[in-house]
UniProtKB/TrEMBL annotation:
It comes from the Bacteria. GO terms for molecular function: hydrolase activity. InterPro entries: AB_hydrolase_1, AB_hydrolase_fold. This is Alpha/beta hydrolase.
Length: 272
């Protein structure tokens, strides 16, 4: 079993950013998604550790304390980890994929980038966000979580009555897993407020010069396929890869990160 070494670095605003490192080879940073943390990506890191020195970056505001959060903070944090490690390869999942693309536009420190179903909103429906915020204000945390799951549109529960979706999720996600989700609900709200703010701004990714692999799962809903296709038409040195049997959460522990890891290695090892 691979071992992880905990490291820290300082971001531009003085925030201490934690990242955990394993493996050997060229440096690769993994940026996790919303409603999760680096612990959910250790299996993917282990699969990659034979080929790369993998750095799992813990994004800020995992406790929901940063009331003035903006995505540029995460971009500055990622740049700080990149400078501390010298890593020039980048993998971002979901909201972490959005952070990856935004960082590349702002600072361009990476030679190659993979984003798996990045949280880029092109024609989003944001009605759920107000309901989510209201549920949080009333401390109806299970309801807020169900509203989010339905609003994202990745789950069959998206079309279920809300009371039923809330009940099913309450029964399915319990114990330690639920405590983590509950802790991250505030951060999740602020992060998706940023996604909404960036709605339709994807055309700026036309300035990216690094090769970008736009990855996704064939089991994901059509709007994901459409979003990746649109991004491929904007980002100059990009390609789309849809993987059979994979879905939005596939990079995380307990899913199928081994299959994804093979394609990550192939892209980063391929000739420019």
């Amino acid at each position: 079993m691979a071992s992880f070494v905990k490291n820290t670095t300082s971001s531009a605003d003085g925030m201490i950013i934690t990242y955990e490192t394993t493996g050997q080879g060229p440096g690769l940073i993994i940026v996790h998604g919303a409603l999760t943390d680096i612990e959910e990506y250790t299996e993917l890191a282990v699969f990659l550790s034979g080929k790369f020195t993998v750095h799992l970056m813990q994004r800020r505001d995992r406790e929901g304390h940063c009331e003035l959060y903006k995505i540029e903070d995460d971009c500055e944090d990622l740049l700080a980890v990149q400078r501390a490690t010298g890593a020039v390869l980048l993998f971002g999942h979901s909201f972490g994929g959005l952070v990856a693309l935004e960082t590349a536009v702002l600072f361009n420190p990476f030679e190659r980038i993979i984003v798996y179903e990045p949280g880029v909103s092109i024609h989003g429906n944001w009605d759920w966000l107000t309901v989510y915020q209201s549920a949080m204000a009333r401390k109806k945390y299970h309801l807020a979580f169900a509203v989010f799951v339905q609003g994202m549109g990745h789950s069959p529960l998206s079309k279920a009555p809300r009371w039923l979706a809330t009940l099913i999720l309450r029964l399915a996600i319990r114990g330690k897993e639920w405590q983590l989700k509950k802790k991250l609900l505030v951060s999740n709200l602020r992060e998706h407020q940023e996604v909404k703010r960036l709605e339709g701004s994807y055309r700026k990714y036309a300035t990216l010069s690094s090769p970008v692999l736009l990855a996704g799962g064939q089991a994901s809903p059509p709007f994901i396929h459409d979003m990746l296709s649109i991004l491929a038409g904007v980002i100059p040195a990009s390609q789309v890869m849809m993987l059979p049997g994979l879905h939005h959460l596939s990079p995380q522990n307990g899913e199928v990160p081994a299959l994804l890891a093979g394609h990550i290695v192939e892209f980063f090892d391929s000739p420019v």
